[in-house]
Structures are given as C-alpha cells and as structure tokens.
Write a structure and sequence with these properties.
Elements: E1 6-15, E2 27-35, E3 39-43, H1 50-58, E4 65-70, E5 73-77, E6 82-83, E7 91-94, H2 106-115, H3 129-139, H4 155-167, E8 173-177, H5 185-202, E9 205-210, H6 213-219, E10 222-227, E11 230-235, H7 237-242, H8 247-252, E12 257-266, E13 272-276, E14 279-283, E15 294-299, E16 305-307, E17 318-328, E18 333-339, E19 342-348, E20 359-363, E21 370-373, E22 377-378
Parallel strand pairs: 3-9, 3-10, 7-8, 8-9
Antiparallel strand pairs: 1-2, 1-4, 4-5, 5-6, 10-11, 12-13, 12-15, 13-14, 15-21, 16-20, 17-18, 17-20, 18-19, 21-22
Helix pairs in contact: 2-3, 2-4, 3-4
Bound molecules: adenosine-5'-triphosphate and magnesium ion.
Length: about 400
C-alpha cells in the first residue's frame, strides 16, 4: 500500500440512463483516484459525463458497473451488491445553481444540514450548532452577514454561503459541479482563487467538475479530461498543457496550432523530419511512430517565434511566412501568419512591432513542437515533471477586492 492515502477511488464506472439509445452510455468505464486533501478536476465538453460521474460518487445515481470507494470503504459496487445511501456517504456538495434557501437567513442556511438527521454522523446537540455554523461562516468570511436574509447577498457571497453549508459537517469529500458558472467573468476569476485558498485551508479532498479549461488548469492538483463518457488523459495541469495525449486534448485544453504531419525520416539529433502544410519541420516524436505514419504537430501560439530578419543559418525549423493580420490585445499581440499552405496563430509581447503583409521568418523551436498521434501517443517529456503542481502559497486573499456589495 502506498504511504499516501487515497480518499476517493472510482474503478470501471459505467452508467446508462433508462431510455438512452442502445450502447449509449453517459459514463463508460471511468477510473480515477483522488488522494487525501487534493483538488481533482473532471474537465470536458458538454454531455461528456462529468455530472453523471459526480452524481454516482454522491449516490444520487445508481451505477450500472464499477466500484466506488470512499476513505477505504466501498460505497457502491456490483457483486457483491453494495449501495450506501447519499446521506450516509459523508459528502458535501455545491451544484451549479447553488440552491441556497431564499426564505432563510444566512445562519439558518448553514445550520440546516446540522439540524437534519444524518446517518453518517451523530445528530448534533442544539447548543453545539451555533459555534459550528459561525466557524463555517468565518471560514468563508460571511460571519458578519449571519442574520441577513440569504437573498440579500451578492452572487459571490451566495456562492460562498453554499460552500459554507457544504463544509459545515466537515465532510470527507467535497463535490463541486460548475459552482462558478453563474457568476460574471471577473467575479468568477476572483472566486477561483478564493475557492482554492479555502479548500487548502480546510484541507478537504475535492472533486471538481467544469468545462472551463482555465478553471481546471489554475485550480487543480490533477485533471482528468473526459470525452464521450471516458477519461482520455489524466495528468497535472502542466503536463496536460505541455503534453496533450490526443488531438482532442491538444485543442480542448488551451489554444494550439495543429498541423497535419507525415513522417519522412530521420532528422537532426533525436528528431524525425515531418512533412506539414507549412513545410518540412523536425520534431521529437512518440517512440512508436514510424516512417510514413500520419500524426499532428502541435505548437502553442506563445511558442512560435517571429523574426523580421532571417536567423543565423544553424537555427532549426525556420520557414518564411507572411503576416496576414495583427490583433493588438493590450497584454499581448496576436499575429495571424501564413507559412506555406498553413495558417498559424502566434502570440507575442505587445512591444513586438510587425506589420500586416510583412515578410518574416517563423521559427518553430524544436522543444515546443509536440507530435500527437491518437494511435501512438505523444512526444515524450525530456525533463523531469513533478507528479503534482507545487503547492504555491496563497495566503493573500483577494476577497478585499470583492467589497461588501
Ligand atoms: N437524467 C438523464 N436522463 C437521460 N439522459 C441523461 C440524463 N442526464 C444526463 N443524460 C445524458 O448523459 C450524458 C452525460 O450527461 P452529463 O450530465 O453527465 O454531462 P456533463 O458532462 O455534465 O455535461 P454539461 O457540461 O453539459 O453539464 C449526456 O448525453 C446527457 O444527455
Ligand atoms: Mg454537467
């Protein structure tokens, strides 16, 4: 057994809704593990099975196959048939419509789960409730609002109230289903940092669901990308961005230039030569790939280098191009560039000044050329990548910027 405790385990989860077409499974063989105290995200487009997975973990849906463990206990399995009811699973939840009760005060909303009968924990004595509620409200910095009607809170405050209610029983696991999607863009960004700071502070193992890749990349220890009811890649945010395993992941997680490529043969050093619509390029390829194989070359817009003059003759992967379009965005400038038959997007520092129709040289740095093949995988990592994002200090709360409105 590993020294790190697994808090949530899902093995071979399958779920088909009644009435769905033959073979159409909402979730089709999903397996993952979340370590104690970590923030784990299911990321994928609409309809890929994220909510269904979460609801199966919560016990709100019966599974068709697979096993779910919570803190070492089987809560759902077939052969033998086990099903632990949702209120016995010791889970806190916040959903997209965070469903706070409008006729109650802030205090009563948080006290509600403590007053109800729960099978997973003993019912709390009446005189213990206020201290627990106020502690949860303090955690989300809403203690001063305890007596307010819940409807008289801002969107961000209502979101934090829903979180306090989910955390007040100190659950083993926190489930969050797109909890920020009702907020406007700037509040959503603030709450992203705030939610992550809170999760670290409380230390609760968290399973988060979103279709928003920047939420997933910025908040998670690990991310599982889902497509059509399956996990197609599971990695740290950095690995996911640097080494997408399939074409789908390369385009879904971040923006990229994806070039069709045919393997020609050996290039310089470890590289192979690839024929692409931009021209011949060299890249390190997945080890199993062979001459004549088809693949895709992915290069992120921020990694393409644009030169007004031809770089020195030793520089690899330089092709002539023309600037079609310049989009000045303030913090960066976006260049649309034609290279051979390929249109490329390049993101540059705003100080770079190149003009429309200018003839330039485009450099595809070899270390940033990632070859992706759905059959053979992706370019291997050359440097050691940590299994977990470093736990950056997040002591500075951005809450003060929210104001009290
Ligand atoms: N109650 C239901 N009855 C029948 N089919 C359902 C039900 N809920 C979801 N589905 C179907 O199951 C599939 C997965 O749905 P799910 O809600 O898990 O997707 P999702 O990844 O959460 O999507 P979104 O990002 O839109 O919330 C979809 O094809 C959906 O239409
Ligand atoms: Mg959903």
């Amino acid at each position: 057994m590993s020294a790190i405790e697994v808090s949530l385990g899902v093995e071979g989860l399958g779920k088909r809704y009644p009435g769905a077409e033959d073979g159409a499974r909402a979730v089709n063989g999903v397996s993952f593990e979340v370590e104690e105290g970590k923030f784990y995200t299911l990321l994928g487009p609409s309809g890929c099975g994220k909510t269904t997975t979460l609801r199966c973990v919560a016990g709100l849906e019966r599974t068709d196959s697979g096993t779910i463990y919570l803190g070492g206990t089987v809560v759902s399995s077939h052969q033998p048939n086990t099903f632990i009811r949702p209120d016995e699973r010791d889970i806190g939840m916040v959903f997209q419509s965070y469903a706070i009760w409008p006729h109650m005060t802030v205090f009563d909303n948080v006290a509600f789960p403590l007053r109800g009968v729960s099978r997973s924990k003993r019912k709390m004595r009446r005189n213990e409730i206020p201290a627990h509620v106020m502690q949860a409200l303090e955690t989300v910095q809403l203690a001063a609002f305890a007596d307010r009607p819940a409807t008289k809170l801002s969107g961000g405050q209502q979101q934090r109230l829903a979180l306090a209610r989910a955390l007040v029983r100190q659950p083993k696991l926190l489930l969050l289903d797109e909890p920020l999607s009702n907020l406007d863009a700037s509040l959503r960004e603030l709450m992203r940092t705030e939610l992550r700071r809170l999760q670290r502070q409380v230390g609760v193992t968290t399973l988060y669901v979103t279709h928003d890749q920047s939420e997933a990349l910025s908040m998670s220890n690990r991310v599982a990308v889902m497509e059509n009811g399956k996990i197609v890649q599971e990695a740290t945010p950095r690995q996911l961005y640097r080494r997408p395993a399939t074409r789908f992941v390369a385009t879904f997680v971040g923006r990229t230039n994806l070039l069709d490529a045919t393997i020609l043969g050996k290039g310089r050093g470890e590289t192979l030569r690839l024929d692409t619509p931009a021209g011949v390029l060299e890249a390190i390829c997945p080890t199993a790939i062979r001459e004549h194989d088809q693949a895709s070359l992915s290069i992120r817009p921020e990694n393409l280098r644009l030169h007004a003059q031809e770089p020195s003759s030793g520089t690899a992967n330089v092709l002539p191009g023309t600037i079609d379009y310049v989009l000045f965005l303030g913090e960066s400038a976006e260049y649309h560039v034609s290279v051979g038959k390929q249109l490329l997007i390049s993101r540059q520092h705003p100080d770079v000044e190149l003009r429309r129709r200018q003839e330039i040289f485009v450099e595809f740095p070899t270390e940033h050329c990632i070859v992706v093949s759905d059959e053979h995988g992706t370019t291997p990592e050359t440097q050691h990548e940590p299994d977990d994002e470093s736990e950056a200090r997040m002591d500075d709360s951005p809450l003060s910027a929210l104001g009290s409105a």
